Amino acid sequence: MNFFSDNTAGASAPVMAALAAANDGTATAYGTDAWTGRVERLFAEIFEHEVAAFLVASGTAANSLALASITRPWGAVLTHEESHVADDECGAPEFFSDGAKLVGLPGAGNKISPGPVTQALARMREGALHQVQPQAISITQATECGQIYTPAEVRALKDAGAPRGLTMHMDGARFANALVALGCSPAAITWQAGVDVLTFGGTKNGAWAAEAVIFFQPEAAAEMKWRRKRSGHTLSKGRLIGAQFEGLLGGGHWLELARHANAMAKRLADALIALNIPLAWPCQVNQVFPILSAELQTKLKAAGVGYLPWSQTALPKDIPFAEGETIGRFVMAFSTSEADVERLINVFAAAKG
Amino acid sequence: MNFFSDNTAGASAPVMAALAAANDGTATAYGTDAWTGRVERLFAEIFEHEVAAFLVASGTAANSLALASITRPWGAVLTHEESHVADDECGAPEFFSDGAKLVGLPGAGNKISPGPVTQALARMREGALHQVQPQAISITQATECGQIYTPAEVRALKDAGAPRGLTMHMDGARFANALVALGCSPAAITWQAGVDVLTFGGTKNGAWAAEAVIFFQPEAAAEMKWRRKRSGHTLSKGRLIGAQFEGLLGGGHWLELARHANAMAKRLADALIALNIPLAWPCQVNQVFPILSAELQTKLKAAGVGYLPWSQTALPKDIPFAEGETIGRFVMAFSTSEADVERLINVFAAAKG
Amino acid sequence: MNFFSDNTAGASAPVMAALAAANDGTATAYGTDAWTGRVERLFAEIFEHEVAAFLVASGTAANSLALASITRPWGAVLTHEESHVADDECGAPEFFSDGAKLVGLPGAGNKISPGPVTQALARMREGALHQVQPQAISITQATECGQIYTPAEVRALKDAGAPRGLTMHMDGARFANALVALGCSPAAITWQAGVDVLTFGGTKNGAWAAEAVIFFQPEAAAEMKWRRKRSGHTLSKGRLIGAQFEGLLGGGHWLELARHANAMAKRLADALIALNIPLAWPCQVNQVFPILSAELQTKLKAAGVGYLPWSQTALPKDIPFAEGETIGRFVMAFSTSEADVERLINVFAAAKG
Amino acid sequence: MNFFSDNTAGASAPVMAALAAANDGTATAYGTDAWTGRVERLFAEIFEHEVAAFLVASGTAANSLALASITRPWGAVLTHEESHVADDECGAPEFFSDGAKLVGLPGAGNKISPGPVTQALARMREGALHQVQPQAISITQATECGQIYTPAEVRALKDAGAPRGLTMHMDGARFANALVALGCSPAAITWQAGVDVLTFGGTKNGAWAAEAVIFFQPEAAAEMKWRRKRSGHTLSKGRLIGAQFEGLLGGGHWLELARHANAMAKRLADALIALNIPLAWPCQVNQVFPILSAELQTKLKAAGVGYLPWSQTALPKDIPFAEGETIGRFVMAFSTSEADVERLINVFAAAKG
């Protein structure tokens, strides 16, 4: 019972099939192949907008390349204090950007809001040579606590950054999960809401290793080909990523996988609530964050249930927390079966019974 | 007829099969999976030596991580002036090493030799604060001109660098091809000859995207886990690379693929010599470098033959070169069939006929 | 009436005299001159400890070189969220360290304490590849709010960092002011209390541009000569800095200057308190931070008094703050005369009268 | 008898006087002082062109900031293989530019010429992702071998770089010496000949530590204030540099000092030629490079004459070189007296006699 993350699964069957199908014959290298070309066009269709798309094999690379593209070394990126880019990439954004600064903002459920953005900007004097200059906002969709930003919330953040001309990046490692939860169009939650650069995650969605950096102003991507190459992220056999994305995006497969994972999470969340096990944050996508008593933790461990303990920093203020309690993160992947969830629910039920 | 590179093929059937077999079930992430663990042990067996092995998806990353691990930002790496790391990675080694310097040395066939190493060292005053400090030698095995270093030649370079304590890196993007051509053991051409860090190439050999940085003094790799993560090269679904390597290394498949590619090259080279088409450098591995007259170039183009024009910098001094001539690089992949080569030979024969 | 900073003055007369005296004849370059050599030995005497001292012309350089020397690019420095290194150097520490992270901690008067250090360390998992690794603590002595750390407080911070082996850096831009206020020996507040690397500030103390990075474990400074050169901070005519320091340090001149500046600040602080103008933080060194009503601000401006508005982030929680109030920073330099202070006090008195 | 370099002297009397005069009263910090402002305008007058001028204390910083401003991290700077920026700054340009590449070109007397520029450009494919992109040319005026570029030669280099849009940087550590030797206007040898950015050297000319980065298109300097601050080169007491430059530039003092140093060199060169001691390169500025026999070397050493052995890389091809010979570099500073030169000539004469 492995609920550690949605990166513990392999690839979905259609992704594997697409990869196998792509294995014949020769193709030009370094992302000039036909698969990659088709995927780049697919993204334009999906987002109903001209895009420049750059495929890479890791989310760390995608996020870091994106941030490096929209900051200068003396620039600052406003982001949640526990966002993945700030706290979980071992300083990769700093490496790729030659030393730009990530400024951490507070916010329940790892969501940032206009107030802290405005306050942070007030503390960074415009044009002053003593301080790094704010240049971008980075938000995670859905957040590390499984919370989603609505288009209006994204727009409000963009507006809060507008007086200083901040560019907006969205880390969409779980973009598909957020999108199907929102029920809006890909365009509505990205460029129409003010997003300039998107990390489009395929890996957690059902691919092996497939992420895309998508620029909605293609001219802003002029330097990306050198940045990607120079950081070792231009794979020579580019169709490896192109084919995965074709398998994933074709026929709405990616949305279907995300809907399934979200549904599995909903099922667990409903069961936990029925069992009077409180959730740290409401279940909005494919992650569930129950607050686990010491006793529950022991019983889950005994039953061989794998999950991660989670940070309490972004808890809403009104959540009571008792001695020995912890937050557990349970993540549903595209491959999590109903039987897997039922088994887990049964463990919880037995533990509470 | 695509002879541009050995990265235009996909993956060999056993590699694809290993990947498909690895797709079931869940695995722990970020390189802690069973496949990766087994591969790390396999490398120790192959090299008959304790190793620290780090799997990544691109050769640029592998080389750059290796060089960054053995230099300081004010350090210098002595390498051929047209080696891949110096001339074909868009400055990736400089990026990963935070600005270390690659010092280019001359040498026929892109091979460097002790003389130029010693001369370069003489020009870099030891301990002087005005100059970068020599810290490593990097050689390509086989070189970008398809030439191989013997164990004795590697040792001689190591000895030339010894007075300044230089570490030795071998870029083995085509390590398998060189190894089967040499007919020695993997140990003999690496740590026994003085190599400290090896980039072990799987991609050109028959994988999709699988390279390993192999340290023969494992303790020298203490910082690699952070370097790799920070540069975005720690894939979350690590078995993607682990499984490829298992498919490639199992049962000597990698050596078989290399032998095939080398044999295809030998066949072409022999035919060219029989046709009185001179080779810029002798065919030692899976690449053939005929000197093409203007007329031959036209005819090859008309026949739809794909190859790369190649640099003349590393030509031996006694090669005569006529107006309009160019060097063509023809690379045989694991997947190049005898029929492919025959077709190419026929084009040459017809052109010369 | 310029009380903006202690960097608005020139150099003290003995410093100018020492510089003039050093102008004759030739000297070897790049810090190998006799003046620099003597100063390095002087530091060993002052600190009663073997040291490696590196003279530079700016505090930004001294702090950044110090921090770069004790962190890796994936390392983190724990420091106050509004410390000079974190908030006032335009990201210089990130530049010099190739992207290390400064982790900001809260604390009244810009002082950090063991509690927040321990909490921050708890959030950074040891050896985890996903997070930067804590490697150093940096404190400012005296802080940007004019507060001093006692030897016991420094030791407590060092102890808090000890479980993770943190190195301790002290930014002593106003070290002399803090030292004379503490009344202890230079040794007691540095290496005896756990400081590993000190930025010894001469510029604000009475020099033109003279700072020293002092390592109390000289072997830890092995790479500094390259770091300093590579960042352009090895002046060719090194005696420019050496002579300033000789003028400053000779005969206890530096302590005398600091005592004077502190005394001028004490005089102002006492007068403000007598006038019922509250101070944000107690006056401990050469800075005074009155809380200024809107009316006072207007009157100071009208009288041509120069001061900086100061951040309220590090205010103690129990300081009441009314609409329109601000904190003003008034800094006394070595050159601030009693008459200057009297004039300022008169402005305050008239404004309150 | 110290002829090691023109950085072994202190400052000229007018420079010291200007510094002493600047020591009274307070001034605003970080380069906003009146002295710096006046110097910036002085440069505009001297060059008869609008400029953006940035004062710093070291030539390494000035050159590196200049190059970082005109390259991207994946860019290349074409320069002589033994130019100061390539070979004598410990990789500082690489550090400041976040890893850009310096491509070394050959050339007698350390001068580069259009041919090698064109050849280097031909080897760097435009827009190709595999190679760093050429973005600038950097020349030293006068070169490290004391040779000067005429305006026509500078223009020819600019023209050679024009097809790739290369920006031109001139390292003018000895700009004054070159200028008075050329006898042209400062404008003629800089922006009128195609120079975009100039390192204007004051230190070797007679200051303590005063260099300026001068942009002839001021808008190209938009980011310099952050680059300079971030690298620790924005001195708080900025008038330290401003005053030096005022002392140096006022009343043509800088030209007078350069003329004197050049004349001293000419005197030595003429004497050496009369003594049949050959010069490696003709004496054009304030440096003399005799080829010294083993015997001469011994006698100079015995007489206590200080000079540097110099590289033979940039020797013209037709210079014969005997066993044991070396090139000696003798540099005349502003402060070198006629008596100093006479003494040196006497040593040579006695040695040859």
| Number of self-contained structural domains of chain A | 2
CATH topology of the largest domain in chain A: Aspartate Aminotransferase, domain 2
Count of DSSP H/I helices of chain A = 14
Strand content of chain A: 15-25%
Strand tally of chain A: 11
Task: Estimate the mean pLDDT confidence of chain A.
Answer: 96
CATH architecture of the largest domain in chain A: 3-Layer(aba) Sandwich
Q: So, the CATH homologous superfamily of the largest domain in chain A?
A: Type I PLP-dependent aspartate aminotransferase-like (Major domain)
Strand order of the largest sheet of chain A: 1-7-6-5-4-2-3
Give the helices and strands of chain A as they follow along the chain.
HHEHEHHEHEHEHHEEHHHEEHEEH
Termini distance of chain A?
20 Å
C-alpha-based Rg of chain A, rounded: 20 Å
The greatest interface between two protein chains, and residues involved on each side, is:
A-B, 52 and 52 residues
Q: So what's the CATH class of the largest domain in chain A?
A: Alpha Beta
| Range of helix content of chain A | 25-40%
Structural class of chain A: alpha/beta
Main sheet attributes: strand count, strand direction, barrel closure of chain A? 7 strands, mixed
Low-confidence stretches of chain A: none
Q: What characteristic shape of chain A results from the CA principal axes?
A: globular
User: Which oligomerization state do the chains in this entry correspond to?
Assistant: homotetramer
Domain Aromatic amino acid beta-eliminating lyase/threonine aldolase (chains A, B, C, D): 3-292
Protein name (chains A, B, C, D): L-threonine aldolase
EC number (chains A, B, C, D): 4.1.2.48
Function (chains A, B, C, D): Catalyzes the cleavage of L-allo-threonine and L-threonine to glycine and acetaldehyde.
